Amino acid sequence: MNKNSNAERWIGWGLLAGIMMIAAVGISSAADLPTITEEGVISGSMTIDFQTRTHPDRSGKLADGSPAEGTKDMYTFNLDVAKTTEFAGTITRQPRLFSKVLGREMQPAELQYDITLSVRNPSNLQQKKSVGKWVGIVPIDETGVYMIDGGGAKGSPLRMAIDTIGSAQGFTENFGGRLAGKAASKQGLLPYTFSRFVGGKQVKIEVKNSDPMRFDNILLAAGPAGIYPRANVTGRLDYDYETGNWYTDGIRFRYVLNGVDCEDVATGSIKWVEDPNREQNGKGQYEFNLRFNEDKNKSATSESDVFSGGAGDEEAFFFVDNSIPSLTGTIAYVDMMIPGKEAPSSSKVTFNLNANQLNKQQIVNFLKLWLLCVGPTNDE
């Protein structure tokens, strides 16, 4: 018996067994799913090459300040989820370009995905098998809206294309919906107040110029395994230009698992923290503090745990409460800055996100959404 047959057997039976196990337990809600508490539940690296910032147009045909035609930003990554699932590949970001004289569009804006999806043998993590691809195009319209369902018009819809392996039946499913990125103009941004309960006390923080990234019925395609069903995402993630922080008062993930409707609501913050020597070393990181289904999980943290050291409301807002389901940890950057500018020419990114009482569906859904947001979350 050859090695390929063995690999296909454990993957096929493993994925099928996972589906059958979920069907057998009789799920009544997402809270009934097995949960994970694990450091580095999403881990790996990404390199970003902002070629649109380093390859200017020299033809004289494009509007002043344009990058050269055909130049793209490249996000190349290898990310592991719960040690058994791998997302590895490249996302490219192509900017919209206009002619210098007439202002005619010369190149459309779009993202292009080319991600290989693999699973590992839980009994031997050195055994890995590709199970399919996440591929396709996401056009970006003139207002900065990501048309996640728009790739079909270009002959390449954004989709999960999963192979048939052993007893696990393959499938192809498209992503859908719209994502409104950062506003092209900062004029007209409004203040927004976010609140959360910390240690039994409500604390608030006001963002003076809040720029919401909106999720308009985004459809996350099913996969890479059958235990990850399609999910609908609504809500917003707001950017604060003064601090570089992101906030949300509710990103809703809705999906059907074993015939039961499930909903997860993520709330909280993603705080940007710069190294004291960032000007020299280019270091900074996002510190995650996202709680899942906060309203359904009673915190065991008391008010004295949070405020005994004299913490104010703003400091308390970022307090990490590990007594309720949450996604914490960091995404750390080492940026190579362009001389005389604040924007980097390239970045080396390290993912080290931790799960606290989260199920695999919550973790994979979040990662899919974060990769859809790759432009707005990395464009300083």
Give the SSE map.
Layout: H1 3-25, E1 36-50, E2 73-81, E3 85-94, E4 97-98, E5 105-107, E6 109-121, E7 124-140, E8 145-147, E9 159-162, E10 171-174, E11 176-180, E12 190-198, E13 201-220, E14 231-240, E15 246-257, E16 260-274, H2 278-281, E17 283-292, H3 303-307, H4 313-317, E18 326-337, E19 344-358, H5 360-372, H6 374-378
Descriptive tags:
two-stranded antiparallel ribbon, globular, mainly beta, 17-stranded antiparallel β-sheet, 14% helix, 380 residues, 19 strands, disordered N terminus
Could you walk me through the main structural features you see in this protein, from its secondary elements to its overall organization?
The structure is a single chain. By secondary structure, the protein is mainly beta. The protein has one domain. It has helices at 3-25, 278-281, 303-307, 313-317, 360-372, 374-378, and strands at residues 36-50, 73-81, 85-94, 97-98, 105-107, 109-121, 124-140, 145-147, 159-162, 171-174, 176-180, 190-198, 201-220, 231-240, 246-257, 260-274, 283-292, 326-337, 344-358. It has a 17-stranded antiparallel sheet that branches. A two-stranded antiparallel ribbon has the order 4-5. The chain starts with a helix and ends with a helix. Mean pLDDT is 87; it is low at 1-29.
Q: Report the portion of residues in β strands.
A: over 45%
Which residues form runs of ≥5 with pLDDT under 50?
1-29
Quote the distance from N terminus to C terminus: 53 Å
Secondary structure: helix percent: 10-25%
Measured on Cα atoms, how large is the radius of gyration? 22 Å
Query: Order of SSEs, N→C?
Result: HEEEEEEEEEEEEEEEEHEHHEEHH
Principal-axes geometry comes out as globular
Class by alpha and beta content: mainly beta
Mean pLDDT: 87
Mind describing the biggest β-sheet?
17 strands, antiparallel
| Number of spatially distinct domains | 1
Counted by DSSP, the helix tally is 6
The total count of strands amounts to: 19
